[in-house]
Amino acid sequence: MSDLIRFGVSIDQKLLEKYDQLIEDGYTNRSEAIRDLIRDKIVEEKCQNKEEEVVGTLTLFYVHHKRGITEKMMSIQHDYHYLFKSNLHLHLSHHLCLEVIIVEGKREELNEVTQKLIGLKGVKHGKLTVSAIDESL
Questions:
Q1: What is the pTM of this model?
Q2: What is the β-pairing status of strands 53-63 and 84-91?
Q3: To 10 degrees, the CA torsion angle through 12, 42, 99, 122?
């Protein structure tokens, strides 16, 4: 507890009231909510570095019956096999599938493979969400 530092923050009353409403269901106090905001900003900045080791999820919505899409997706994943850790596949409807893939590696390579997968004909939507691997936070 000796590393704990207290500091004051000046903030407009209306802004503080909105903030308190936002955090009231998830936090027991403002301090922890502010710590989470700071951590989030630090992680966000680290993840901008293309050389940063990150972990995250790649979410893909695609039309299962699009000719060759499954084979193309597998081929790309095999080319980057060292980035892919696990996946979940769901059939949302007769035509639409959801693939959630856990990935880990350098941000630049994850961006590259994400663009290749999202760019396939039949992929309706895709998004890469990452977090920096930082135990000091």
A1: 0.80
A2: unpaired
A3: 80
Whole-angstrom distance, CA of residue 75 vs CA of residue 64: 16
Over residues 71-99, the pLDDT tens digits come to: 999 999 999 999 999 999 999 999 999 99
Sorted by where each begins, the domain ranges of the chain are: 13-47, 53-132
| From 25-39, 50-64, 118-132, the region with the lowest mean pLDDT | 25-39
DSSP-derived letter for residue 91 is E
The fold of the 53-132 domain, in CATH, is: Alpha-Beta Plaits (3.30.70)
Report d(CA 104, CA 87) in Å as an integer: 12
| Alpha-helical segments (H) within the chain | 13-23, 30-47, 69-79, 107-118
The residue with tokens 């590696």 is 105
By C-alpha distance, which of 90, 137, 83 is closest to 111?
83
Contact 64, 123 (CB under 8 A): no
